[in-house]
Amino acid sequence: WTPRWSDEVVEAMDIWSFAGTIGVTLLIMESGMHINFEKVRQIGGKALIVAIIGTVAPMIVGMLLVAVLFPGKLYPDGFSAGCALAPTSVGISIKLLGDAKMLNSMAGQTTLTAAFIDDVFSLVLLGLLSSLADGAENLA
């Protein structure tokens, strides 16, 4: 038995989920608009390394925290915690670099490109996490 209003709550959650998806899409689109692709050719390797470290390090920290605090729950709980820590706020990066007038500098473009790549990696991780939540036994 569920209350009559439960269907309305589910529909409202679908609306919020849709609004969140639109928000993330617009945020990533905005970050892509600020990337200078000529500079990306020069800094692409460095930005990729920074993005990989920026994704892997929080994953490791999250998994280690779960392993220490909740022994025996490394997978999937540790993976979930790592996925929660992995995303970078590209919106904050754009705002801070813009305020400091460093958005078009090499350091600014490296930071922005790395944050953009990190967010793409994080979206892939969240997709994997979602498939685990839907009942997938493993990530293969």
Automatic annotation (TrEMBL):
InterPro entries, per database record: Cation/H_exchanger_TM, Na+/solute_symporter_sf
Superkingdom field: Eukaryota
Stretches that traverse the bilayer: 15-35, 47-72, 110-133
UniProt main location, coarse: membrane
GO terms classed as biological process: proton transmembrane transport; sodium ion transport
Keywords, in A-Z order: Antiport, Ion transport, Membrane, Sodium, Sodium transport, Transmembrane, Transmembrane helix, Transport
Domain Cation/H+ exchanger transmembrane: 10-135
One Gene Ontology MF term: antiporter activity
Gene Ontology cellular component list: membrane
Cited Pfam families: Na_H_Exchanger
Location of this chain's protein in the cell: Membrane
Recorded topology in the membrane: Multi-pass membrane protein
Coiled coil: none
Name under which the protein is recorded: Cation/H+ exchanger transmembrane domain-containing protein
Organism listed in the record: Haptolina ericina
Source species taxonomy: Eukaryota, Haptista, Haptophyta, Prymnesiophyceae, Prymnesiales
